[in-house]
Every structure is written in structure tokens, then in C-alpha cells.
Specification:
Distance between the termini: 37 Å
Oligomer: single chain
Number of helices: 3
Shape: globular
Helix content: 40-55%
Order of helices and strands: EHHEEH
């Protein structure tokens, strides 16, 4: 279940996964690899900044186009 009280400028793990076109496991893997950083929430329901997610999405699109 997604958190209803999320701070402006942040995304839940589910929203992040949808924005990147990957699974929740993929989001956890990106965090583990240091490519994405948690910015709040709880260990079970982390939040990520919109800025970080959009930058990562752009980087992934650029890499896919190359």
C-alpha cells in the first residue's frame, strides 16, 4: 500500500518503479548499486526525490539510445 502523506517533490517506490518502467525489485537494486538514493519515508515505504528519478530516467533513456 502506498503512503498517503508523502512530501511534495517525492515519489513512493511504486511511483518510482512506474516512472522508470521497472519492478520494485529493480528500484531496490538501483538503491543497492548506489544509482538511486532514498530521501525519506520508512525502510518499508521509502521515498525518492522527483529530481533524482527524472535524472535517472533521462540517463537510462540516453544510454538506451546510444
Amino acid at each position: 500500500m502506498e503512503s498517503q502523506n508523502i512530501r511534495p517533490g517525492h515519489l513512493t517506490a511504486h511511483q518510482t518503479a512506474r516512472a522508470l518502467g521497472i519492478s520494485l525489485g529493480g528500484v531496490r537494486l538501483l538503491v543497492h548499486r548506489g544509482q538511486l538514493h532514498r530521501s525519506g519515508g520508512s525502510p518499508r515505504q521509502p521515498w525518492y526525490t522527483v529530481q533524482d528519478v527524472t535524472a535517472l530516467a533521462a540517463k537510462r533513456r540516453e544510454r538506451a539510445a546510444a
